[in-house]
Structures are given as C-alpha cells and as structure tokens.
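hiii, so i know i said id send this last week but things got crazy w the move. better late than never?? heres the sequnce for the chain we talked about at the cafe, plus the structure i predicted for it. fair warning i was half asleep when i ran it
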Amino acid sequence: MRRAIFSVILVFMLGILFQPVTAKAAREDDIVALMNDARARQGLTAVSIDQTLTNVAETRAVECSKKFSHIRPNGKAWHTVSAATNAENLAHAVNDAQQSPENVVLAWLLSPTHKANVMRKNCTGVGIAYYKGANGETYIVCEFN
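okay and structure toks below
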C-alpha cells in the first residue's frame, strides 16, 4: 500500500515539475505563430525564434519586473541591452488571461507602434520571454532583429 501511494505521489510531483517547461515553450511558440498569421495576412514572410534574441528578451523581462519601461533600470534605453535587437515589444500581465499568447499578440496588434514592430518587412527573427516577478505579475518581452 505504501509503495502504491508513493508511486502516485511521485508521478504527480514529476508531472508538476515538468509541466511548466512544456507550457512555457508552447507560449513562445504560440506568440510566434500568431504573429506569423498576422504577418501572412499582410503578405509578409514568417519570423522564427532566434536564440540570441531570446537571451536578450529574458534579460529584458527580468529588468521589466523591476521597472516596466523601454528605459532599462540602469537608466539607459532598451536597445543598449544588445546590438542584436532592433525593436522591442513589452507586455505586463496581472492575470492568466492577460498573459495568454492570443491576448498578448492582440494587444500588440491594437497598438500602432507595437504593430509596426510585428509587421517590420525586414524582420526575420524574434526572441520572446515570459518572466514572473516577485509581485506575482508576468512580464512578456519580444525582441526583433
């Protein structure tokens, strides 16, 4: 009996440990897919995930949890984080619905400046990161090449 209970608990705990990794990867992939759908409707080529830009987005997401702005916590402009990035979109989510890929991309497409970044003709790569801050709120960053 103890062995059966231990097995059930172990399977449950492993499921909890491995679920966030899968869910996280899906969010970024879904954002790219939704942006590519919008780009295709405008006759633009698809973008793909770029690891260098993803690393930059991860840095900026952490920074945004300290100061949600295109100005970095050190007082410098967003583009000083890396020479690899040419445009940046931010999102701040206080609940699960706001951080869904559909709502993040919709918000960007409803903002003329953010939409312009998504629709940049010469863009081929993006980096996307989600970061949950100490306040429990989520910061989403997309860096564009």
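btw The two ends are 57 Å apart (CA to CA). thought thatd interest u
miss u guys!!
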